[in-house]
Amino acid sequence: MTRARASLVSLCLAGPLIACESQPDPVALKLQAMSFASSEWSEPVNLGAPVNSRCQDQTPTFSKDELRLYFTSNRPGGLGVDQQNGCQDTNDLWVATRASLDSPWEAPQNLGASINTSANEGGANLSLDGHLLFFHSDHLSGFGQFDLYVARRADPKDDFGWGARANLGPLVNTAGVEAAPQYLQSAEDGSANLYFYAGADNNLTTDIYSLAVTRDGEPLGSPVLVQELSFPGRPDGFPSVRADGREVFFSSGRPLNGVPVFDLWTSTRQSVHDAWSTPVNLGVPVNSSFAEFQPDLTHDGRTLLFIAGAGRGGEGGLDIWMSTRTVNGK
User: Fold this and answer.
1) DSSP state of 26
2) Sign of torsion over alpha carbons 153, 297, 122, 223
3) Fewer beta carbons within 10 angstroms: which end of the chain, N or C?
4) How far is residue 103 CA from its own chain's centroid?
5) Full domain range(s) for residue 201
6) Residue 230 is part of a domain; what is its CATH number?
7) For 99, which DSSP code?
8) Cβ atoms within 10 A of the Cβ of 24, count?
9) What strand order describes the sheet that includes 224-225?
10) pTM over 0.85
11) Which tens digits make up the pLDDT trace of 131-172?
């Protein structure tokens, strides 16, 4: 399969996901009946310390219960090399936990050597049952610039119980970039689906793809271009699909009013068998005059995580932000 375009801006290499089960997910069924058509997004808030740091904090994704936050960071304490600016030369995957939705976040911890290497890791995404972790890495053992990987664990509450990481193989990974996977569980007929972005021209342009996978995360064929979400000659990436498969958020450098910008965009479809609608810019207050990247939608569809640079405020570097939306006026 031809890969005509590459990946997003190099500083944003990381991304989100969901998961796979054979039985219908009651939350996904509830979402199908729920109307987001007249919903409004709140003014985004910066997650602050200790989640954000003066280094680059990226590609956030919640666990289903929202008590675990997996993300990418080059903060001290990883498997890279410390630099004079107090950050490391590569990105690792980290996890922050909290006791309840109203509790503060504990200090993030590095996921360790079963997942991270001295190269760059990013784009973490947990399956809904918590047994699978998808991510990307540019380790030299892969097939190209960035490859997609999966790791598995027996205990979904053991953040440091991950087994050895496994490359998804040459049916999926190429000499170019494959990054920011999202595992969509129970929303499509038959197999589960993995969404990600890919390209081959050194992060100048990228397209969004989907891939049928087994419940255990094994590829069932070759990736398919999601053409209606991919703008020719511009970077599209970091897809985050709602649990019912009917709404997607993604980053894009496509033009807005004739001017290329890096913003968050969204699209919908009537059913998982339909094509996606023409994407629309998410607008204010989520987007701003600064660049926004890497959206991740929670399982209930109510909260959107994303990242923005220091120009928008925060702890410095790239920070993680959060916005929530109303449903039927509530």
Assistant:
1) H
2) positive
3) C
4) 24
5) 10-324
6) 2.120.10.30
7) S
8) 10
9) 177-184, 192-199, 207-213, 224-225
10) yes
11) 999 999 999 999 989 999 999 999 999 999 999 999 999 999
- The Cα 16–Cα 58 span in angstroms is 10
Residue 83 lies in a domain: yes
User: Residue 158 contacts by C-beta under 8 Å, 6 or more apart in sequence?
Assistant: none
Q: Is the dihedral of CA 186, 188, 192, 194 positive or negative?
A: negative
Give me the sheet containing 319-324, strands edge to edge: 45-46, 319-324, 303-308, 292-297
Q: Which pLDDT score is estimated for 215?
A: 86
Report if residue 3 sits inside a domain: no
| 127 C-beta neighbours (distance < 10 Å), count | 26
Residue 19 confidence (pLDDT): 32
CA distance 70 to 257: 35
Looking at this protein, which amino acid is placed at residue 309? G
Classify residue 65: in a domain, yes or no. Answer: yes
| Structural domain total, the chain | 1
> What SS3 state is found at 250?
strand
Residue partners of 110: CB distance under 8 A and separation at least 6: 77, 78, 79, 92, 93, 94, 116
The pLDDT tens digits of the residues spanning 4-34 come to 333 333 334 433 332 333 445 555 555 554 5
329 in a structural domain: no
Mean pLDDT confidence for 195-210: 87
Q: Which residues in 63-190 belong to E strands, given as ranges?
A: 68-73, 92-97, 109-110, 121-126, 132-137, 147-152, 166-167, 177-184
User: Does residue 249 have a pLDDT over 50?
Assistant: yes
